[in-house]
Amino acid sequence: MSLQLLATLLLLATTGLAEFRAGSAKVDITPKVWPVQMVGSFHERLADKAHDPLFARAIVCDDGQTRLAIVIVDNCLIGRNYLDRAKALAAEHTRLRADRILVAATHTHTAPPGKDRRTNRDDAAHRAYFKQLVEGIAEAIAQAEKNLVPAEMAHGVALVPEEIFNRRWHMKSGGIAVNPFGSPNDIVRMNPPRNLIDRPAGPTDPEVHFISLRGTEDGRPIALLANYSLHYVGGLPADGVSADYFGVFAGMIEKALGADKDYVAMMSNGTSGDINNISFRVPRPRQKPMQRMNEVAQLVADRVLAAHKQVAFRKDITLAMEQTLLTLKNRQPTAKQIAYAKAVLGGTAPEPLSGLANAYAHRTLALANGPREEEIVLQALRLGEVGITSIPCEVLCEIGLTLKAKSPLPQATFTIELANGHNGYLPTPRQHTLGGYETWMGTCTLELLASVKIQKTLLGMLEKVAGKD
Question: CB within 8 A of 40, min separation 6: which ones?
Answer without folding.
Answer: 76, 108, 109, 110, 111, 232
